[in-house]
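hey
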């Protein structure tokens, strides 16, 4: 069969499956089955597809991914992430384009503790985007920082995508994770600088909002209580990998346990929240 005819058949099958309301994941699976049947030799192709699927799931270098994702899911479903956002907001409440800056700074902090780019972006989008639009922020200033922080999340460890890249390319996962720290921090700093400059040059992009700031110890206490422990978890995970004390999988497991322990110490960990975190981890990691 000519390649163009096979491609047409696959595209038509995918369109048909998706058009009848089948979820994209199952439609994609159906296309893979059809493709394996056409190109890899019918029954032998289906067997090879199953073998490849099992081999990809059983790959040991990919085992840190669920732990990294779990770290972020626990933060989001226990409410610890919300407290961290409020703590950051208290510290930088006078900065031009404050909520956009909060999105970048909070996203950077969550990048250092969450391996799920999807979860970080979804959390910031659901919490900050409606508030920024309500206060008259330009859509670019509201949506841009939230989308841009996904790029930072892919660089700063722990990063599930970095683990996947290292596994596929044969590069040391530990070194690849550590190598993403400086570029991620520089990119985050560049975003903050750009937001502040744009807000100063054109205040209409990010209107100032009457906000009663908190002075003294009350301003800095939440930062030390809710943000510093998260940063310490990041330091421990990265230090263990870079110093060779633990493999990426062991470091990820330690980070996941530490995150759950921190949520428990904050008295934010509940069985329903933990179950949602576990289900979210399975939903992100399994595909």
């Amino acid at each position: 069969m000519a390649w163009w005819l096979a491609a047409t058949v696959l595209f038509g099958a995918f369109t048909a499956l998706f058009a009848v309301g089948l979820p994209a994941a199952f439609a994609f699976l159906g296309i893979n089955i059809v493709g394996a049947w056409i190109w890899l030799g019918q029954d032998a192709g289906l067997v090879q597809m199953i073998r490849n699927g099992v081999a990809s799931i059983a790959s040991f270098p990919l085992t840190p991914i669920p732990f990294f994702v779990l770290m972020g899911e626990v933060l989001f479903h226990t409410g610890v992430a919300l407290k961290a956002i409020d703590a950051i907001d208290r510290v930088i409440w006078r900065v031009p384009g404050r909520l956009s800056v909060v999105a970048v700074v909070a996203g950077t902090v969550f990048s250092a503790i969450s391996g799920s780019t999807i979860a970080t972006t979804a959390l910031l989008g659901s919490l900050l985007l409606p508030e920024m639009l309500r206060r008259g922020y330009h859509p670019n200033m509201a949506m841009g920082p939230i989308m841009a922080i996904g790029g930072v999340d892919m660089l700063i460890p722990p990063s599930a995508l970095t683990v996947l890249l290292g596994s596929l390319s044969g590069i040391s996962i530990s070194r690849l994770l550590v190598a993403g720290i400086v570029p991620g921090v520089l990119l985050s700093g560049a975003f903050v600088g750009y937001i502040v400059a744009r807000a100063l040059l054109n205040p209409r992009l990010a209107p100032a909002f009457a906000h009663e700031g908190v002075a003294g110890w009350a301003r800095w206490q939440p930062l030390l209580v809710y943000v510093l422990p998260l940063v310490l978890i990041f330091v421990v995970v990265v230090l263990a990998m870079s110093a060779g004390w633990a493999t990426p999988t062991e470091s990820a497991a330690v980070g996941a346990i530490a995150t759950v322990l921190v949520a428990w110490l904050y008295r934010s960990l509940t069985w329903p929240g933990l179950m949602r975190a576990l289900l979210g981890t399975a939903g992100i990691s399994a595909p």
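Residues 3-57 form one domain. Confidence is low (pLDDT under 50) at residues 1-10, 16-22.
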